[in-house]
## 1
Amino acid sequence: MKRARRFHENLTRILAPTQLVPPLRRGINFNLPSNKMNPRARSRRTESGTHLSILPIGEAQLKKLTLIFLVATLLSVGVVAQTQTPTPTVTAAAPAAAVSNVRQEAFEMVWNTVREKHFDPDFGGVDWDKVREQYAPKVAAVKSDNELYIVLQAMLGELHQSHFSIIPPEAIVDDGSKEPKGGGAGLDIRLIDGEAIINHVESGSKASAAGLRAGFIIKKIDDTTMDQIVGRFAQSTESPAIKRTRITRFALAKINGKPETTVRLTVTDESDRTREVIVEREKLKGEMSPRFGNFPPQYMEFESKRLAGGIGYIRFNIFVMPLMEKIRAAIRSMSDATGIIIDLRGNPGGFGGMASGIAGALEAKQVSLGAMKLRSGRQAFIVFPQTNPYLGPVAILVDGGSASTSEIFAAGLQEIGRASVVGEQTMGAALPSIFGKLPTGALFQYAIADFKTPNGVLIEGLGVKPNIEVKLTRRALLEGRDPQLDAAVSLINQKHSKQERVPAGR
């Protein structure tokens, strides 16, 4: 119980509004791909820099592209719900001088990494030397590692950019198991018109058995009201989309927890009556992805099916390598589909190279999804068409929780005219990043490039604007409808009726 309580307290600190920038995902000790990787890459130099050649899905070169486009506050709920085995950190019991030295070393590492690796040598107009002067005394005054992480996150917040984050060791799960150890209540939520509304309840879950339904409003989680949770983020300077996602993730972290424990939810039902529901948490289904360098295991969800009219539907919750073959196989199996809908709602991103790899299964010619600009040089996300790509209509579903690789994939295919984007404007957090490890055991995520679409549009801070904007409403959820999916289906049918689909591979 003490360990679980410590983890919850640390998770609260991770998601606290003192972090002025969305925490971002862990990565690895990274070196940019060189021309030695592939002879085709060696020949692809232009005046504007070296173009990064992404090979077809599943090949070794894609595995070497380890840039992470993933927002750390958006770590999958399955990860934060895991039973924790805290990584040993520097504690107050250690000699005072040693504690101070290690924390000072962590501060120096973070500050110097930004100074040396940030893609903009002017730091967006921020005086980084002055930031050091401002935060060095605060670091010297901290009494614990967690206080240190809060100060470091606030320092990174001075950049006002995504993908700069500190992830405490207690929030990292890695016991080598493929099976998730954490538990969930079997529901998901979104902030709609300022209310925490259940947008999905898993069939056969404990939440469903307890009578919870999509469209119910969550007012209270155990003894914590949603107003209190929202209030924690009142002073945040983050974008509304990032703030909404942080609030929902914080709430879900409280709803989910150790299997065979319970959570007490106070909800407003379909008749606008307030009632209390006890839900037992159950072990999460599915698998965990393997560790990749400093990028920890992630809870994976994947769904593939046919909708009415022969339309294919593919949904996955995160861009991690083990899902690549499943996505490719699903697209191949839908060669005769009227159209394909790829649902990236709530998907926070992941491995950037997967965007080009998946796009190769949907495109007949070599194209680019955009390019990232580093402090020196530029690299394009080149799409190489695969054998017999699917060339029918494609719609991509997005919302305010779609970030990073989801945005790169959606924006790139939208601009080259290969897919239509349906739903709500995305988060606007799309900086290529990698992860390092601090001497305290925490992970440090930092961006090393910006990203622009094929037309030179910056996604960071702006997001992807859908071709067809459709808001999710409580009324629709209570009626059992998904207006965003309905709009995508309608769009596919319209495109199919106007022109005959080009046969795959032509």
Note: DSSP finds 15 helices and 27 strands in the chain.
## 2
Amino acid sequence: MINRILSLVGWLGTAMVFVAVAIRFGMPAKDQYAYYLAWAGLVCVLAYTLGQWREIGKVFGRRQARYGTLAATSVLVVLGILIAINYIGSKQNKRWDLTASKQFSLSDQTRNVLSRLDAPMEVLVFYKPDELQGWQDRMREYEYASKKVTTQYIDPDKKPAVARQNQIQQYNTVVFNYKGRTERVTSNSEQDLTNGIIKVVTGRQRKVYFTQGHGERDATSQERDGYGGVGAALGRENYTLDKVVLLQTGAVPDDAAVVVVAGPKTDFFSQEIDALKKYLSKGGKLLLELDPPDKPDSTPVTNLIALAHDWGMDVGNNIVVDVSGMGRLIGTDASVPVAASYPSHPITQRFSLLTAFPLARSVVPVSGGVDGHIPQAVVETSPRSWAESDIKGLLTSGQVSLDEAKGDKKGPVSIAAAVSAPVTSSEAPKPGDNGDTPKPEARVVVFGDSDFAANATLQIQGNRDLFLNTIGWLSQQENLISIRPKEADDRRLTMTSAVQTNIMWLALLVIPAAIFTTGIYTWWRRR
């Protein structure tokens, strides 16, 4: 009688468990009933099991039962290990990118920008229906890099009201919302997405002025010697560009974040130098790119060289020659020094790319500094280089050798240096109460070459990043100092028709024939 009651209790408990599962997945609104049914069913099953302890003991006393129990226990242990591994994996997300160009990994710049987010960032992706998976793969990288990034995927056809509210005009538009600011991007490339984040984070555009009137580089020119390439790159990083003729304005515009003097052919007038000095005294930021003489009778830019010296940097009257052979790796000769390692400075932090400087001169920090301005070297050439003082001989014959007795300076040679100094002028801008405006200080960077940032040499990616890092440091936006995203390498294999035919015969005839012949030979030997 007792066994019959226990049997009914066991079947009732089993039925309760099945009903609870059905309610849980079939009627989520009544989930609370499933909870109570499941517990009641488990109690009934447990009561039945305890009531059958003698029969259970007899069964497990047999040899086959013991083996079965051991097998079941092993299965449970393996399942437990798998469950534990999956649980740990869900809490500790670790990924490896094994592609040669790291095309599935975010660049240093993107990770740097995301790591500095101090508030939640909402990302709205208005996707084209057949491209949702691609967007999810892309944005998952950003969410993995920062827990402050959350993404919503919205089909503008299904939610037109939300699309109108966010002023969506086309598919594949991304809206970044951060601290009440909004930025839109219509591309899924990492460069464009990261630039959109930079714009919404910085909140305002900074203006970079390029001086004109002395044969300087043009930031809008697409010619080989123009600066159109870096000009466009600055625009993508939320800078605006403008030109200024200091002799006409008499002063640097008040909204200048950075002033660039890129490769002047003639010297600045004293009024222009005074304007730059006054600008620096108020916490200005100046980039000087002073090329060496390209002709034996070239007029030196004496006033600009003197301004660099006031900030602790000696600009040499020489041309740096590099005989290390590194230039041949990028198709250049000894007149183009190549840098592969860099002194410690925020501009070149974690910087490991090659940079090349066609026809460069030395820029050496003055020992002990000048008037409290103590600069640091930023770029140095290889030990197998030197600063050649015989400019005429180098430009006319192209044949020179290291002769320290005649004034040549053995490498490594510094060809760029940087310095900063706090500002005490009453005209200097005051830091913002919210911390968005950094403490004002004057910053100066001097390069002994301007060709490195020209359009003709931007295929050497290190050159572009070095110039942009320099502007980022000058404008006190250290979050922009990093290695930018790279385009994925084109690794397609292009074959001629003859090669395609040979591969076809190799796959269809040669390899199968070789395997068949080997099999016949093995069979014959065994006979």
Note: The radius of gyration is 35 Å.
## 3
Amino acid sequence: MKSSMIPCIPLFMCLLLMATSAVGAPADGGALEATDHPDRIELRTSALEATIRKKGYVTGVAGGSFVDRKTGFRDAGFGLDIVDWIMEPGSDEAYRAQLPGDLAYEFNNLHHGKRAKRSIEGPQICTQAKELSPQLIRGKDFLGVQTRYRYTLAAPGKKPGSEWEQTLVFPEGKRYFLSSDRIAAVNASKAMFLRLDMPGHIKHNRGDTFSEVYLSYAGRIPSSEFFADFAPDAKFNYRRDRDPVPQRFIRAYHLRDPKTGKDGPWLAGMTLDPSVVYEAWCHQRGYVCMIEEFGGRPVRPGESFSAAFLVGYFDSIDEMHRVYDQYAGHSGLQADERGWKLTKGPAPLARKTAEEPAKEPAKEPAKERLAQRLEWFQDQKFGFMVHWGPYSQWGAIESWPLVEVDKWARPDDLKAWTERNRDMERFKRDYWALNRTFNPTRFDPQKWAAAAKYAGMKYFVFTTKHHDGFSMWDTRQTDYRITHPDTPFSANARADVVRTVFDTFRKAGFGIGAYFSKADWRHPDYWSPDAPAPTRNPNYDTLQQPHKWSRFVRFAHNQIEELLSGYGPIDILWLDAGQVRPPQQDLRMDDLVRMARGHQKDLIVVDRTVGGEHENYRTPEQEVPEKPLPYVWETCMTMGKQWSYKPDDEYKSTNELIHLLVDVVAKGGNFLLNVGPQPDGELPPPAVTRLQEIGDWMKINSEAIYKTRPMAPYKEGRVAFTRRGETIYATYLLDEGQTTLPARITLAAVRAEGGARVRLLGSRRRLAAQAGEQGLVIEVPPSLAQAAPGRHAVVFRIDPERG
């Protein structure tokens, strides 16, 4: 603590300070008062009083200064929203002796518990910065304070210089203030977080200053639980990687008058977006220590992360909930003299001085970027889709047999259904247990990628998780995954199937698409186990039980974030289960997409069948539109009858598949062709054969497919048109087994008044062509007419004649 002795100041200076620093808010601010002293800022509204220190123990609101004018109670700790270090998981034991200042972090003790953590940058701002320069903001109906600090210490291999910014806003008439803390990072970390006190610690002697604690994730806790010291992870601990994310994140203590023993109001600290909290604890170490850490996700140099809070006095827990819900979902806060607003992401960095206007951050042209990505997508034209999971062992339709009302998914030729005497409960029980026998030892992604590449496919979409909830990657969110010991394949070096296929296909030059089902029938907060689940939808009222639905939303967000932050560059997030949409099944798509593009800025998002800004392209299923569509689209279709593997499935012929590809591309779409691998991991031989034969055709004719755009009238009899620049491609579709061409072909859609150069792809010979009233007439010589260069379809390339 620094001495409180006041330095000697000449009388005229004192008068000057009084005249300039104690000026209140504008006249229409009513009861707002603010006094800017050399060592502190004092704030007063009609509801609150608070002090922000400039020297000594700094950051947040000074301990004991936060007064509820309604009741006269004040906070019982060392301060509110008090800030420490930038940290990450892991131990610093290997280099602890080299750490400067206060960066060393020891664990396995009562103060810090057993979880290994280490400092990235310091010092602990509250105790070691010693002096800050908070800037007072005088608004029309609020007072605010903004403070910044640049960290000066760093761990080995890191550098100092990350910037912390805190914004506090005290609205007139409210018994609470809003705040945000933001880090603009100069270092990289897989799980960077900021540690702070929220709302703040509680000084007490056997509960004399408070009667109970309320934690939204643990309930009400009597003060007697804090009479003896215990470690942070012993009890009342929250961890995002272990616990369901609560609907609200509130930590509060019920104040008590130590002289009379009479209860006063609650003092609560609320984190307005629960998903940002990495870990939080409420333990006893001579006082009740309320530490919170937010962030805990990958951060790169130049990126920012933040959290927004509400701290104040309340007469009941119900009142806390009502106020929380007014502000829920925000993680940033902006303020200047014109006003303040909460944001759903890190707010722009504040101005540096009271005179310098805040600069708007450079805005990324998101729409232009997305438009460029969709152009890239339309250039690819031909994609490979794979539905694969434990269901392949039964040859069953993926997931859908679990839905009682969807009887179509349990046909009589499904042995797994008839062998169980059509007993739904028995069928579901055994379906859920398929993971225990799934052991695809012949799985070789190199073979998959080689077959798809030869076929001319350019991008790959894989079912990371279908509706049944089985995750084909090493997710940390559920045990129902391929890498869990319950699954025999978990011991295989390729057990993390998603990582293996994405890495393999990416290396082979494919774009990568992650299919993800927004529904999860295995998750207890989608299909609750305490009631029947006859339909594809949740079996409870999500609006009446928002806490359950909130947990599911966070689960889904966490899984998607794992895929987008830990599995390399991903081009497409292909979201299925279109019934998951507001109002009953609100997955908070705005937040999800913001998070997703925070990890993958070039991501194309396909919230299929929902419409709106997050369905970046449409996906007609198992059909080709009759006419071109006025938006970006992709036909997704099975090679056989079923998306997943089915023994003796009926596969489309190569001729039909090539005609489908040509038809789709001529109408401006992409063709995503699906194959279901066998339970052993091999692609079915009929599928491999067709991919080979498609590849043979593409080797000759692919230039009529890739990077082309449609040309009206798109189709003319047996001919489909595409174009690239001035070049027109006319693809003549041959019947199954047909090898001959007409001697003369007329293309009414092609007007070549200036003449045209025509040849068949696969032949260097120029063909005679004449433009006339009926269009372009192409003469096919007998040698080509009787032996067309290729099967299934031939392509005439038509270029304008050069003078």
Note: The chain has a mean pLDDT of 92.
## 4
Amino acid sequence: MILSARKLTLLCIIVAFSLLGIKPIFTYAAISNAVPIEVNKTYNGTLHEGKNEQDFYKFSLTSDGNVTLSMKQKAGVTWDVTILNNKGEIFESLETDNSELIEGNAAVQVGLPKGTYYIKVSPIPYDYSAYGQRYEFKVGFAASNNYEKEFNNSLATANAMNVNQSYKGTISDGNDQDIYKVTVPNDGNVTLSMKQKPGIRWYASIQTSSGKVMEELTTDDSELIDGYASKEVGLPKGTYYVQVSDDSYSENEPYEVQVGFIKSDNYEKEFNNSLTAANKMNLNQSYKGSINNSNDKDIYKVDLPSDGNFTLSMKQKAGVKWSVSILNSKSQDFDSFVTDDSELIEGYETMQVGLPKGSYYIAVEPDSYSEDEPYEIKTAFTASNNYEKEFNNTLTTANPISLNQLYKGTMSDSNDKDIYKIVVPNDGNVTLLMKQKAGAQWHAQLQNSNGYVYKDFITNGDELVSGNASVQTWLKKGTYYVVIENDSYTEDTPYEFITSMKSSALKASQIKVTNNKGKDDVIEVSGTAKADIVKVYNASSKGTLLASKTSTGPSVTLTTKQVGEKAGKVYVTVTQSGMSESDRVAAGFSGEQSNALSASQVKVTNNKGKDDVIAVSSIAKGDIVKVYNANSKGTLIASKTSTGTSVTLTAKQVGEKAGKVYVSITRSGMSESARTAISFAGEQSNALQSSQVKVVNNKGKADSVTVSKIAKGDIIKVYNASSKGTLLASKESGGTSTTLLIKQLGQKAGKVYVTTTNPGMTESTRTAVNYSAER
């Protein structure tokens, strides 16, 4: 087959474009016969004057996403390219640049939902440069739900937006606006952010369905700008709308916008600029917010469950000043402050105020450069009756206080005055004491209801000051007032003071201490009153509390496990109703009873003709040993202090006859032990005279030994030797003489040895008595 020249030329063109990957398209000038194309592929064509003056193409999107229309630019040629729907409504358009040195592509972006769309290529009016010039274009597509989808320029057609996701879009012209619908799932903090670009400004806002703007921003178009413009606002759960529009040179410039969200009850929720619209605030938590403009005001409501001290703090920031106030429901100002905006400032500005149980309001207002600056505010509360409660600047509104308790307060301004009412229960000395602080001077005074000042002082505000300022004055039983005023630089500086009255000390004669052994020790205190609190300590200061008891009458008895084994002192106080604890009074006590000696520790030697001896062993230096003649009372026979581990005592006579002595020991710091009974032998009996003994050596019958001039009960013994030997006979006398019979003394003459043992005494020495041989 031979091809015509025209067909051959056309074939060559088709082959050439195929090799280059570019598809030539033969188009028709109507949407109804638009040529189908595919996304993300390059196409070309040519416009001809008088015919094919505009070309139409048709493409389909299988999902929502971002469409990028790009057209290759050429010097001296201008094409007009638009994206349309089947109704001819324009989504986006571009004009190529015909500059002499132009190169590259002109491009526009638009988010579109799934569907069918059209591309129209045409010359611009009264410009014939596009005719006969081959054009090249491409429809790029990226599937995504995070692109703005036209048309979305009304609340009804708003694109759905998820929190914490970025969305991209473009403003097609100065009258275009893109609107997104966002659901805030819970109460919390919303951050509207928009990426910034040099030379371009977008306006963005977040608003309600009624068009009330909750927050807004305009991006910065500075030459070196980077990052994001952002605004924060606390919002309650609900549906809101984000509007993006042109502010300057933003037409057809891709933008990026995001709505960040953090779930929290601790963010300011607009609109809260009145007492009735105040945000609820919990105690002891931090809250964040921002002031939208110079006329904005954020108000929070806080409930105090009881009387106490309320602390309000605000984080400070260089270059920014906020004004913060504490109000009641009548908008009366309890206290206020303005944050510090110094260059190097950090930390928190804080104020404290004592308040009674109830509802209060915190107002945050701009002072200087605080518009759209995030702030952080926090509260703290300590339940207590010991804080000054505003308003208390007159005698009739004076805060009632108790003696001997610490109270705290603050001066809200230099003209403030805090007054406290105190009842003195008894005549006596009352002390007013106030803690001193560098840089602040308070004036404090004690007065009566007529304004008569008994005593006053001004605290020292020197740089290195420490301790307290105080005065003491004698007051009669009655009602008085403590008045505290500013003297110098005390505004919003916490102060603390105490009025005290000390109980009268006990007398030593009122206290009796019994130091028991093996059971609780007892402290008896007399002369007390009902409700007096008696305390017993082991030292004159600090130390350990041994016992405490509230008296129910004129005396009180306390017990403690142990005041001490050895003699010592306890220290006793009394605290009378409404007064502070008295000084401690020392009360002595004796030591516990020493442990008794055991009988094995004591040895008694009952000497004849010289002092008797009592030896005590296994004792300690300083122990006192006493020897008595009776188990109780009786006569002290001997007493001696040991200088070592044993001691020897002597006595003129413990007794001739066998008996007992009673020995005690008193160990160092303790009381005398019970007496231990120690038996002792009697003295040695007097030896018999030989004349008292008659020995008859019989033959053929028993020999006899007769002893006379003795006493009934004497025991007579007869031995065959002067020591040791054999006992020949023994007999107890029944009267003044006795006869002992012995079978055989010996046939020859010899000697016997006779002893006597008087009752209660030891055996006498042996007396030698001669006898003759048997006859």
Note: The first helix runs from residue 5 to 20.
